[in-house]
Amino acid sequence: MSFSIETFLFVTIILILFYLIKKARAVILLAASLVFIYHLDVGSFIWILAVTAIVYGVGIAEDKLIERIEKKKDKSEVTLKILVVASVVLCAVLLFALKNIARWGERDDALIKILLPIGFSYYIFQAISYIVDVYRRKAKAEKNPINFALYMCYFPKFVSGPIERSDTFLVRVKELSGVRLFGNKRFSISFSTIIYGYFLKVVVADRLAFFTTRLLNDSARFGAAWLFLGMVMYSIQIYCDFAGYSAVAIGISNLFGIELTENFHAPYLSRNISEFWRKWHISLSRWLRDYIYIPLGGSRKGNARRFLNTAIVFIICGIWHGADASFLAWGLLHGFYVMAFGLYSEAKRKRATGKEPASIMNVAGMVFTFLIVSFAWIFFGAPNIGSGACYVGRMLSMTPGVDSFAAQAADIGASRRDMILPIYGVVVLALDLLIARKDKRIGRAMQGIPDVARYAVLYGMIMAILLLGIYGPGYNASSFMYVNF
């Protein structure tokens, strides 16, 4: 959701209709979602309608075959397996083809727009999870086409997720008639979550982007000190960009009584890489675990198989983000991190003394995890694998650069007013500490602090958004980094 008057008016109108017409709430949200998608991109509108219709039909067919199996009809199990495998393979091939064919060709922007519709990766993963969950009997096929279409098209999550599961999402859709705007502090929690999300995006992420874009694309002009700072800034930028969108989506959705999956839970306060992946892009991490890692055997078949399964998962994770070798390098790095931590954890368990780690060790673990994650982000953000390797080489060789640090700052466009940038990082850290301490989402975590403090924090974020935010003409949903994935 972009930061604009149009977005504000759109959500306000839908909110008024939603609470005025209680008996048609699902229809109102579906109509709003279709209008939103059509306005966003006509190609995406056509794709989502086609995918929704096909997956809805597959689910109904699965349901009928399951009924036949339960009545012991012959060959229905084989037919069901063929249907599920064919459907999942079709989704996977379609995703791979649409994400990569245009990029591997002439890199024609018009072709990429046609073949890479916005949000495709997210709702295809939802489609796969729905098909598999119905087959596993973890979810019932949804017979109401309006409810199912809303599951696939719901506008707050359409652009960049979270990736929702049908069993939880559809339950909430069926309870819409009982939703009250001011019940259970719904409005206060939603407002805090939305403001937090926009603060992360338009104040922190977009201001850091001025520097990280230049550093990642032209690293040969800068010395190691600026490149190290760029690595840290990009880590904060990508977190604030994606977590910011997720928070806005969750906050807006909560206004309508549909609680979306939490996608980030203070990931940079993780003490190890395994914990990081439980808190970073949570809906994707769980999807990869439940539909790839566990079906491959997980950790049940020895270390060799566990490491192979881990490597496969992170290779797929890298490819999901893009066809460039830099994304594959990013995925392989994280696969290596997780495997190395697994070996370290096993060795640690064998010589365990039963004592809890000291606080200093926890802090050291957080710093180390942040640094290795930030190192991997270089390849994620670099234009290609060569640029990423150049960036890493210059940074690790401690190259000072041709010009002085101050001259390089002028070259990158930094001025004295940008000295305030570290304060943004401190604010993000403080908010993450609140999330971690309360072990709740930001909206609910802020309900747990004194009213005066909460109002002061909200006022500060609102003022920062209005005075320091990057928005206005030309700023739209496609400005979010994870739209491209």
TrEMBL record:
The keyword Heme does not apply. It is found in: Cell membrane. It holds the Pfam family MBOAT. It comes from the Bacteria. The chain crosses the membrane at residues 36-58, 78-98, 110-132, 187-204, 224-248, 307-323, 329-347, 359-380, 419-436, 456-475. One of its GO terms (molecular function) is acyltransferase activity. InterPro entries: Ac/AlaTfrase_AlgI/DltB, AlgI, MB_O-acyltransferase, MBOAT_fam. GO terms for biological process: alginic acid biosynthetic process. It is a multi-pass membrane protein. Keywords: Acyltransferase, Cell membrane, Membrane, Transferase, Transmembrane, Transmembrane helix. Belongs to the membrane-bound acyltransferase family. This is D-alanyl-lipoteichoic acid acyltransferase DltB, MBOAT superfamily. It comes from Butyrivibrio hungatei.
